[in-house]
TrEMBL record:
Domain of life: Bacteria
GO molecular-function terms, A-Z: serine-tRNA ligase activity
Top EC class of this enzyme: ligase
Name assigned to this protein: Seryl-tRNA synthetase
């Protein structure tokens, strides 16, 4: 049994995570949720004074926006689409017969207008574009969503449905790169406050295929993505618990996000992996919250 399975088993045994029979799809206990809620309040403490506009979208997004985003070009292996039965009564009888004999009943399911949200910020760009030009002072948004990525794994830090809290900044290059830098500094400070040792490193997204290798190299060479790493299931390969992404003007150009002077807006987003942060806390301080260091409890529950 490897180290990852052991931690997952301990999480199941303690009831913090609830086994559903599918790798990477778990229920969470009230205690686990309380840690996430407390950490989100800490995020509010650090970011609240910035005056971001809060929005919450459901974990599914408009398929047309998803198609336009280009997600299928870069990450087809991760996407999840929502399909439904749209047939006649006869089709229904056939479907039930298929299920009865253990055949594939899903092959005639039809695509709906909804796909599962792959990152919390995806529904935001078309929403803001619809409002017209952004003021020269830019825009700042606060989002949180369950996100889906099809990557089943027994590493509890790799889940298929997990929550991402994000701040998204739109504005000039200087504005959004300053925003990203300030959250890298805050990220380190926040994790220190809850007793977690972190490193920050340049990173890349898992772009699909051979062409994707070039995209990944380009992203790294240009320092477009940084991650805040915390050892959870492996010290040698610490887990990305926050990411700091600078999109240059790529999303601005794709979604027609303009500043008042007519220039294309630059964008950046900062994401907190909420389950990963909770898991890092449980891994580091133990599965019993009441035994966590008082300094950590104070930072989280005041
Ligand atoms: P990114 O869009 O940079 O891949 O992800 C943003 C953040 O979401 C990451 O920094 C990480 O904390 C979290 N995240 C990414 N993938 C997973 C995953 O498979 N499981 C969990 N629990 N969190 C993830
Ligand atoms: Zn984002």
């Amino acid at each position: 049994m490897d180290v990852q399975t052991t931690f997952l088993d301990r999480l199941f045994q303690s009831g913090l995570l609830i086994d559903t029979g599918v790798d990477g799809l778990y229920g969470r206990s009230g205690q686990f949720e309380d840690v996430i809620a407390a950490f989100e309040r800490l995020i509010d403490k650090f970011g609240g004074a910035d005056g971001a506009e809060a929005m919450r979208f459901p974990p599914g997004m408009n398929r047309a926006f998803f198609e336009k985003s280009g997600y299928m070009k870069s990450f087809p292996q991760l996407a999840g689409t929502v399909h439904s039965f749209c047939g006649s009564e006869l089709d229904h009888i056939n479907l039930l017969q298929c299920m009865e004999v253990g055949d594939d009943w899903t092959k005639d399911q039809q695509a709906t207008d909804i796909v599962l949200t792959p990152a919390a910020c995806y529904p935001l760009y078309p929403t803001i574009a619809r409002r017209g030009k952004l003021p020269m002072s830019g825009g700042l948004f606060d989002l949180q969503s369950y996100c889906f990525r099809h990557e089943p794994s027994q590493d509890p830090a790799r889940q298929q449905l997990f929550r991402m809290r994000e701040y998204i900044c739109m504005g000039t290059e200087q504005h959004v790169t300053d925003f990203r830098q300030s959250w890298m500094d805050r990220g380190i400070e926040m994790m220190k406050a809850v007793g977690l040792d972190v490193t920050i490193d340049v990173a890349n997204d898992p772009f699909f295929g051979r062409a994707g290798k070039m995209l990944a190299n380009n992203q790294r060479d240009q320092n477009l993505k940084f991650e805040l790493l915390i050892p959870i299931t492996s010290v040698a390969k610490p887990t990305a618990c926050m990411s700091f992404n600078y999109h240059q003007d790529a999303f601005g150009a794709k979604w027609d996000l303009y500043l008042e002077d007519g220039s294309v807006a630059h964008t950046a987003c900062v994401g907190f992996g909420l389950e990963r942060i909770a898991l890092a806390l449980f891994h580091h301080h133990g599965l019993e919250v009441k035994h966590w260091p008082s300094k950590v409890r104070q930072a989280l529950w005041g």
